[in-house]
């Protein structure tokens, strides 16, 4: 069954940021949402941060404590919390919303936080700087364009990991098709290799009946994990 009905206010706030408003307006909405964001995503049973962190930790070859990781579109720090639980300690974050960054700063989980509007400006990091880069939840219609993928790759070390998520609900179908085409092109050009593309049925609660998967009350989503080429050579 669909469980409890989502409060209308939560539905409205989620719908507002996913609506095709212009970027400055949307960043303002995120600033305003920051204080209630974690309550709302808890109500949504939003599983992306948990699923992404688990996938990355599973693939990670080394003890994660010394690895440098960039959490892109970090929001209030939901992904950092999950990564921290799995032993990652050197976390940097960027987000386009100053309000979200303020909340992320208060968690004490990040060594460094910077304001950066993805798709508008480059990431504030040198090339081949990070052992892993995550972009969880922001790859979607009206949010971060899939044209940012090369920029994520630029700041990743060769052999490093890029972990991404997107939603598979009807409103995001066109965006997801474009994203997967871009992911595939980078794979064909041997920029990275795919380790995982995991479709997850119960990704988060649907905010409308139309978006819900076959009346379950939930939408589905997907976790992608890539490794940047050239890959580390295995010892003979």
TrEMBL record:
InterPro entries: Methyltransf_25, SAM-dependent_MTases_sf. It comes from Dasyornis broadbenti (rufous bristle-bird). The lineage of its organism: Eukaryota, Metazoa, Chordata, Craniata, Vertebrata. Residues 70-160 form the Methyltransferase domain. It holds the Pfam family Methyltransf_25. This is MET27 protein. GO terms for molecular function: S-adenosylmethionine-dependent methyltransferase activity. CDD domains: AdoMet_MTases (cd02440). SUPFAM superfamilies: S-adenosyl-L-methionine-dependent methyltransferases (SSF53335). Gene3D superfamilies: Vaccinia Virus protein VP39.
């Amino acid at each position: 069954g669909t469980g409890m009905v989502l409060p209308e206010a939560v539905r409205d706030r989620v719908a507002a940021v996913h609506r095709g408003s212009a970027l400055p307006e949307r960043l303002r909405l995120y600033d305003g949402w920051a204080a209630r964001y974690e309550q709302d995503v808890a109500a949504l049973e939003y599983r992306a941060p948990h699923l992404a962190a688990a996938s990355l930790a599973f693939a990670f070859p080394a003890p994660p404590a010394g690895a440098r990781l960039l959490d892109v579109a970090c929001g209030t720090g939901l992904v950092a919390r999950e990564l921290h639980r799995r032993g990652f300690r050197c976390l940097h974050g960027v987000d386009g919303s100053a309000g979200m960054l303020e909340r992320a700063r208060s968690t004490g989980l990040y060594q460094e936080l910077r304001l950066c509007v993805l798709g508008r400006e480059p990431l504030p990091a040198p090339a081949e700087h990070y052992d892993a880069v995550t972009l969880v939840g922001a790859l979607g219609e009206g949010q971060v364009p899939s044209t940012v993928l090369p920029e994520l790759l630029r700041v990743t070390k060769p052999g490093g990991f890029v972990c991404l998520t997107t939603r598979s609900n009807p409103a995001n179908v066109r965006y997801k098709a474009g994203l997967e085409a871009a992911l595939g092109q980078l794979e064909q050009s041997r920029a990275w290799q795919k380790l995982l593309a995991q479709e997850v049925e119960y990704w988060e609660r649907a905010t409308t009946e139309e978006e819900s998967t076959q009346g379950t009350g939930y939408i589905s989503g997907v976790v992608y994990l890539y490794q940047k080429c050239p890959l580390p050579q295995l010892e003979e």
